[in-house]
């Protein structure tokens, strides 16, 4: 999937001939050039190392209890489904506060969690979700890198079966961009999100669509069951496929399937997790619902009054450019990179809060980032065929590839040093105390935990985050035993939140709660509410 002109279309003559199509009958996706095959096997080793490093980082965050409500949402549903409760209720999102939650499928229609819950059914711990995400990130990068090499193998200027000089440095730079992309590491650091798995599946669908494989529909179906947000990735892949022109019917089919699936999401009353009204209602100018109807109302409002989205994008264009620069920037001009940016990154930038183009939203923008990384191969091969595929044209392509790598490395150097401070909030002594609390909390107990650490306590029917910034937070009470886990010592915590946590502990003491653990920044209480109690107020 790339912005490619065949050499004979771009006026290439004088010995630069098109390589026989490696994706022809019997050899779809095969890399013919030995030099590019060597680059691929080096890339395989690198991405395996990347996956191993991400798993080690996830293990570190797990042992430090640095897992917040996003992880808790998935871990709760995954655990409930895996233990036979096939319609889990998500209790962590204060939907229509002071009421919490809704059936999990009404969040983003992420049906993929049901087959993933088979891992819980065989006894694996919630840490498995982090490992699956890490594998998906490394796999998505490898899929983008493979697409880069296949485009270069097919379209780089060649003489007979041999690519002309310069292809290996270009390939090495563009593959390195797929590794260096900082948003992969941000996505791995922030809890668990199904969009990461959808990124890998969408890139595989794009690659197979380009090769004309029927298997592409299998990957497309996988994208759909990753939920309403992920469905937009399939729209981008479909539009790019139509523009490239190789498989227009397949591309159109992707777009139709995605729109139809959003209709199914709406019929299921799902999409509540997208918070369309809060994030994008200002574009519609009136209250909007969830699902496809809400999307249509927002798009219609933006078209009627384009000054609103233009103003917001004007204020956030630097964030958008930084996301694209982290993927090398060059590939944003290719059909796949451009379609992904327009369909995914631009709507993320239009969210009222702006959080979806902040660094912590790396998982939200991982697909357009890696799509642009893969698209870089199409741009450099197009440039390489200028001026009869001359050495100077190929040199310019090499400079573009090197520039893409430099851009990705610069953004990585700017953003990655802040990852640890953003997500490693719990000190080792505090984590040790939390481990004691987790071991002594009954499986049947309802848990209210500080939002930053609630993820490790989520595998139960009732779990709620203590937000610390909501005056007199009301928490529903369903369990016979309520365990409150309050962390008063977190890196970078605002003093007001620390005071609120202390006040909540005093309120529990006045209710007669028993101290379970106290010290090293942790105050945990066990409270047995009187019969008929339906709520707990934490000041």
Write a structural description.
- It is built from 21 helices and eleven strands.
- It is an alpha+beta fold and 539 residues long.
- The protein has two domains: 324 residues, no CATH class; 171 residues, no CATH class.
- Strands 6-5-8-10-9 form a five-stranded mixed β-sheet, with helices on both faces.
- The relative contact order is 0.12.
- The N terminus is likely disordered.
Outline of the structure:
Helices cover 57% and strands 8% of the residues. By secondary structure, it is α+β, with helices and mostly antiparallel strands.
Topology at a glance:
Elements: H1 34-63, H2 69-82, E1 89-90, E2 102-103, H3 105-108, H4 113-116, H5 118-121, H6 127-155, E3 158-159, E4 162-163, H7 167-180, H8 182-189, H9 194-211, H10 216-224, H11 228-244, H12 248-267, H13 276-284, H14 291-304, H15 307-325, H16 335-350, H17 366-384, H18 391-415, H19 419-423, H20 428-440, E5 446-450, E6 463-466, E7 473-476, E8 482-487, H21 495-510, E9 514-519, E10 522-527, E11 535-538
Parallel strand pairs: 5-6, 5-8
Antiparallel strand pairs: 1-2, 3-4, 7-11, 8-10, 9-10
Helix pairs in contact: 1-6, 1-7, 6-7, 6-9, 6-17, 7-17, 7-18, 9-10, 9-11, 9-17, 11-12, 11-16, 13-14, 15-16, 16-17, 17-18
């Amino acid at each position: 999937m790339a912005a490619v002109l065949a050499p004979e279309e771009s006026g290439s003559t004088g010995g630069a001939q098109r390589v026989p199509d490696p994706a022809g009958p019997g050899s779809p996706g095969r890399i013919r050039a030995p030099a590019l095959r060597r680059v691929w096997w080096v890339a395989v080793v690198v991405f395996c190392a990347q996956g191993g490093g991400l798993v080690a980082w996830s293990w570190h965050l797990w042992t430090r209890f640095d897992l917040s409500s996003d992880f808790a949402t998935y871990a709760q549903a995954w655990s409930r489904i895996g233990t036979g409760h096939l319609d889990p209720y998500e209790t962590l999102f204060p939907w229509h506060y002071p009421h919490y939650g809704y059936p999990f499928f009404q969040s983003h229609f992420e049906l993929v969690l049901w087959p993933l819950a088979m891992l819980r059914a065989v006894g694996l711990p919630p840490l498995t979700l982090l490992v699956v995400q890490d594998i998906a990130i490394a796999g998505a990068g490898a899929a983008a890198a493979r697409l880069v090499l296949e485009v270069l193998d097919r379209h780089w200027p060649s003489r007979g079966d041999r690519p002309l000089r310069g292809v290996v440095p270009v390939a090495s730079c563009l593959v390195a961009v797929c590794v260096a992309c900082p948003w992969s590491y941000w996505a791995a650091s922030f809890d668990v999100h199904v969009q990461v798995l959808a990124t890998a599946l969408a890139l595989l669908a794009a690659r197979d669509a380009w090769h004309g494989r029927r298997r592409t529909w299998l990957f497309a179906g996988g994208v759909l069951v990753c939920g309403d947000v992920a469905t937009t990735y399939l729209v981008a892949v479909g539009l790019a496929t139509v523009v490239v022109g190789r498989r227009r019917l397949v591309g159109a089919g992707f777009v139709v399937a995605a729109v139809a699936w959003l209709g199914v999401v709406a019929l299921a009353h799902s999409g509540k997790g997208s918070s369309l009204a809060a994030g994008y209602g200002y574009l519609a100018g009136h209250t909007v619902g969830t699902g496809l109807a809400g999307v249509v109302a927002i798009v219609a409002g933006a078209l009627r009054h384009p000054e609103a989205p233009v103003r917001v994008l004007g204020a956030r264009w630097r964030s958008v450019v930084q996301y694209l620069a982290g993927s090398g920037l060059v590939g944003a001009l290719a059909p796949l990179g451009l379609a992904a940016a327009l369909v995914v990154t631009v709507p993320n930038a239009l969210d009222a809060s702006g959080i979806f183009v902040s660094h912590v939203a790396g998982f939200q923008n991982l697909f357009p980032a890696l799509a642009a990384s893969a698209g870089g191969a199409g741009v450099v091969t197009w440039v390489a065929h200028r001026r009869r595929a001359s050495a100077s044209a190929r040199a310019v392509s090499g400079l573009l590839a090197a520039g893409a790598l430099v851009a990705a490395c610069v953004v990585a150097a700017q953003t990655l040093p802040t990852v640890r401070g953003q997500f490693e909030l719990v000190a080792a002594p505090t984590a040790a105390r939390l481990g004691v609390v987790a071991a002594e909390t009954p499986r049947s107990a309802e848990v209210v935990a500080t939002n930053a650490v609630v993820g490790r306590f989520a595998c139960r029917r009732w779990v709620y985050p203590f937000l610390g910034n909501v005056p007199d937070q009301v928490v529903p009470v369903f369990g016979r035993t309520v365990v409150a886990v309050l962390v008063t010592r977190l890196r970078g915590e605002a003093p007001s939140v620390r005071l609120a946590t202390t006040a909540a502990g005093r309120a529990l003491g006045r209710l007669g709660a028993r101290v379970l653990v106290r010290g090293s920044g942790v105050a945990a209480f066990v409270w047995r509410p009187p019969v008929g109690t339906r709520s707990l107020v934490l000041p």
